[in-house]
Model the fold of this input.
Amino acid sequence: MADKFDYDLFVVGAGSGGVRAARMAANTGARVGIAEDRDLGGTCVNVGCVPKKLFVYASKFPDIFEIGNSFGWSCDSVNFDWPALRNNKNTEIKRLNTIYADLLNSSGADLFYERAVLKGPNTVALGGKSYTAKYILLAVGGWPYIPEFPGSDYALSSNEMFFLERLPESAVVVGGGYIALEFAGILNGLGVSTHLIYRGQRLLKSFDSEMTEKVELGMRAKGINIHLNTEVDRIKFVRGSHDVLLSDGSRLSTDLVLYATGRRANTDNLGLHKTAVERRPDGSIIVDKNFRTHEPSIFALGDVIDRVQLTPVAIQEAIVLVDYLFGNAAQLINYKNIPTAVFSQPEFASVGMTEEEAKETSSGVSIFISDFKPMFQSLSGGDDRITMKLVVDRASDVVLGCHMVGEHAAEIIQGMAIAVTAGVTKQQFDSTIGIHPSAAEEFVTMRTSAR
Done:
């Protein structure tokens, strides 16, 4: 690399994608700097999937205690300590931050705990000092978005939900995506009277409609009050409570209002105006297939480019980019058949095409469905159910999509994603021997198409 630059690569943002890129580039012998003005690990580690999954675990214990009696356990006297959960979560996140710092330092990358701002195509400023780099990578992620309306200042974002001083007795959650459904399940599971408000006709609108209907039914069965085709018109703070006026004229009095209406690229005040980097109207950065922006020396990946906002995707993008810049450009990323999970209650996971998508691209589709009560509910008479669905191209017998609602959906679909990515056929599913007794075996025992 040319010595006229301080660094071969300077990474702005130490989230999952930025950290992976910095470590891998440093391991090639490149001189790497990385700057982060918040906590290491980005959204996922600090205010996203990791702490949220911990909260999901906590919120499931009441159901376990209730079922416990059926299995011979006496669970009649239990207490929940919100500060203990919150503080233990903080300790775990601090531990993960230390691990990220150790990984970066051991790789040889220079870590700066400061805000980095672009000063030009090859220059970043940190505090009062500037550094030059042959390549600059923007991996600054996203930030929760709350639309402006009367009283919107009273609404919290998902960021604040992880640090509440006390658990509310009631809550209103606004949104119909991952974050809204997951927090609605968490709050409800922890005993909070929970309302979910969504302006659309159905939850998780980009997923298979039949399966998202199962999610909605399961959430309602657990006591979550769901209001579809509804918006919040105004929030007032009256006598220590939030008065929420809805578009249908009704009112809700609640202790807390959470807005989970999406995240936007965190590109404000980054100094982009001093470069040729171009953004979309929502602030996300435009890149080509190699993650290069309109400024040839500047690249971007992860949530900030708004392709697929998932941590494993950002990590794979980092692997591909570093190989492109410092390797032999052999690594690839395929945005098709990306598995994903929503840790709602009930849990939902999916890989491949929805039924609607398959019918648009295939001349003939067969749908296989299994809906049943899990064995865990057999002694208690509980209402939880599992639904599994395969979407199959009739001509080639290739499985186009695999979807599941119910316990352990994410763990099961991860394995199914390997098969779907490899082009598995329905016949290969049928010829696979199942593990008995398990829920997963249903995927290899569905013989008759539902339609």
